[in-house]
Amino acid sequence: MALLLLLCYLGTSSRGTYMGRPSHGDVVGGVSVVLVQTNITKLTARVIHAAGYHLHHVEHLSIMDAPNLEHIVVEDLRKMPNLKSFFITQAPRLHHIPKLPSLPELRTFIITTSGLLEVPNLSHVHDTNKVNTSLPYLQAIDLEGNHIKRIPPLALRVRADQVSLNYNLIEEVPAHAFKNAQISKLSFRGNSKLKRLNELAFAGNLLLRQLDLSSTAITSLPTKGLEKLETLRIEKTPSLKYIPSIYDFQHLQKAFLTHHFHCCAFAFPERHDPARHALYEKQKAIMAQRCQQMSASKRRRRSPNSKVYKFGVENAQETAIDDATTSEEYDVVSEEYTSDTGSFEDDLEGFHEIVNDTLSHGVAYFAACGNFSLSRRKVECTPLPDALNPCEDVMGWSWLRASVWLVIAAAVVGNVAVLLVLLTNHAELTVPRFLMCHLAFSDLCTGVYLLMIAIVDLRSYGEFFNYAYSWQYGVGCKIAGFLSVFSGQLSVFTLTIVTLERWFAITYAIYLERRISLSAAAKIMLGGWLFSLFMASLPLAGVSDYSSTSICQPVESVNVGDAVYQGSLFLTNAIAWVTIVVCYVQIYRSLGGGGESYGGRGAAAAAERRIANKMALLIGTDLLCWAPVAFFGVTALAGIPLVDTRTGKCNWLIEKYKLAATPPPTAQTNPSAPAPLMPLIDYNRSQSQVSKENGEVVL
């Protein structure tokens, strides 16, 4: 990426590009010095001059594959007053660069895939004594792929469009690391050891618009200095526990996060941060009251020249109409107020007064007196919540919640009763009774799993996203997921053995010596227990994950190992169910001939048929319970998950509500193409762009 950026920059800003010695025909225009596979140990002006380059003509200096480079004499860079770009890559022995001097023309500073141990001090790069000139800035600072562990104080006190510290060894971002800096885009992607961001890590950065903390190990996100943030990326960072309130981000438009439940914070601010939301509602009510007072006063003293008034709220930040902090998010005036023949004040005569303010807790809105309304701010957030990762509650529907509690009662009470009856009966222990004990125990584990999910649903009713991290990444979810997989596998395995035992007993009824012995059944069930424990333990060891869903099921398929694991679960269950169906077909065929296979003993055949019917009912109902799980598991494994939203039955009602609640489009609310990237010194915030695409969280 850095090399591509450099080549693009060279292609647009240099008159000539040279490899080795320069062309003597071009002595006026700037040149590009490119040293490839060089053995120099120290970069000095003498080295460049000895290669045949005139220092005053050098605009671009690039060094690629310099395995012995250890030192850079930074003072010699001042002998190249026209230097615009400085690029070094693959210099593993380059551990330290002294503080850079003033280089007024420098625009890109790139050192990648080298051995830097700390960020070079660039704070004096653009120190200048010139007056009446525009302030210089850096287009890019790229230090990707080094061994940087620390950011020295004031090292990045620069004006820069983008700063990349990706894929280093940074462990902490200290307080005021970017104090008095003006950095528009900042990226720490791939710093896997980065765990701590000081509460004041970004404080003092006056211009931060985009921040990337993906693939790090941070557990929290400070908000000081992020008030003007527009794009936030924290992908592949499962350690992030808490996302700040929407009220901490005045201008956030896009958020690319790791957890589904973090997007819920933007959709339900009243549940995510009740105190801040209460303050917001209180100040909105104060503003509405002021509007009513203004409207009443206006009616008493109408004048032909109506004016636009701006109000403040107690404890609120008064905002000028032309303030950039409000011009982007919200629509000041709708298109109907614009006139080609008269001024805005003339068109407003006899209509409503416009009120413009920014609340003290960071959410601005506009209100028209007599028609008070909150502008709906939209945050495009991914990944969106779905049926397995909901915002409000785990169950989703009241009837499902009630049904689960009934199933829990039946499963726990019924299976405990079966175990007590079978274990306390002093009669001889037979193979069917032995197998039924295992089946009852596995079903009891399923009931305990459902009980844990139901308790979490009851405790977090209406605001599950506030409890999601502590539940899904806690011990409780791991225990619940383990019980679910273990009980499912042991239940299917036991049902298969029960079916095989019945098939063997009925098919070979007259051969008593061919029955399955109790010791053989014990050895078979030992194998089933070991297999079930093994399959339930794999997600705890990192193969798939119990924490990917609210119901603690290992449905996440990120790599080949996850896919093999889920495929193995499906394959073993499929083999078991096919075996069960085939065996019962054979059983009914053998019992359907009037008892011939029993030597004409029709009564014995009828008794066996009744037993087979009961077992078929038991196994058939279990099959019906697991079939939907298996079906949706297969679709998810095939990359076509059908369980993505709660239901699609009421989409028409949702769309109807959206249409009724959304104001008609105006010149400001219509989507438009994003503005092209402009130099930092000319950067002005654009007008609000309210996207109507899917995947947005609406406030």
Automatic annotation (TrEMBL):
It comes from Papilio xuthus. GO terms for cellular component: plasma membrane. Belongs to the G-protein coupled receptor 1 family. Residues 1-16 form the signal peptide. PANTHER family: GLYCOPROTEIN HORMONE RECEPTOR, LP13728P. GO terms for biological process: adenylate cyclase-activating G protein-coupled receptor signaling pathway; hormone-mediated signaling pathway. This is Lutropin-choriogonadotropic hormone receptor. Residues 414-632 form the G-protein coupled receptors family 1 profile domain. It holds the Pfam family 7tm_1. Keywords: Cell membrane, G-protein coupled receptor, Leucine-rich repeat, Membrane, Receptor, Repeat, Signal, Transducer, Transmembrane, Transmembrane helix.
